[in-house]
Amino acid sequence: MTRRAAVAAISAGVLLLLGCSAGAWTGDESAPAPTVGADATTTAKAIELLKSGTKFIDRASFRVDVDIASQVTTLAHTDNVNKRADATISASGRGIEIRMIGTEIFMKTDLDLPGVGHEWMNLDPARVPSDFALSFAPGKNDPGGSARLINAIVTARADGYDVAGTIDLTRVGRGNGINFRPGPDGFPDAARSNPFRATLDADGRLVSFLIPAANGMPSASLRYSDFGAAVDVARPHGAVAAPDALYPQLGLGG
User: Are 148 and 139 spatial neighbours (Cβ–Cβ below 8 Å)?
Assistant: First the structure.
């Protein structure tokens, strides 16, 4: 599997809302990166600091940028208080657009999905797969998926506004934001202690979570910004009901 094949995650049969997915590399591996050691108490304090840094998700609007190896990207704006959100997911110049207003979900894609056109569609929330998460509900309303990253941390140490340590990429799981899928031979053993670095701003908000390319895994980054900015989302004119053929093609699948 080539690096390009491993990270080109958006395909006709595999879509993931508000996030990106990457498989383990099986060739041309990067060298293991140095890691940061920390005892259990130090790690627990750093993790609590990061969790506290995500409280803005339920309290203010924000922007999310997700990038995997500069090949798969997501740009999203979310206002969970007023229930407005939009997102654009791109890979190799193609992708999908999402708009959410209250309980309404609209989607348009230029991917050639069987039985699906390229016009704006109105989705039935009850038929959307769980790993194609579309919700303003607490715990399910972060297009960056920061909780899954924080919960997969193995060791961490805080130094002022910076937190560094190791993360078990096999535990990140599926959902909004960054996702990692195993290659044909599974995850590299070292993926269970991959380095990461996170940054908080002066107000204690998480503004970046960076995973460098190492141990046979691609680089990935999550960034938050534009706190409190207005999120204006318009209902697309002429949206049609999403066809039955769309729903089985949403989510990570497999």
Answer: no
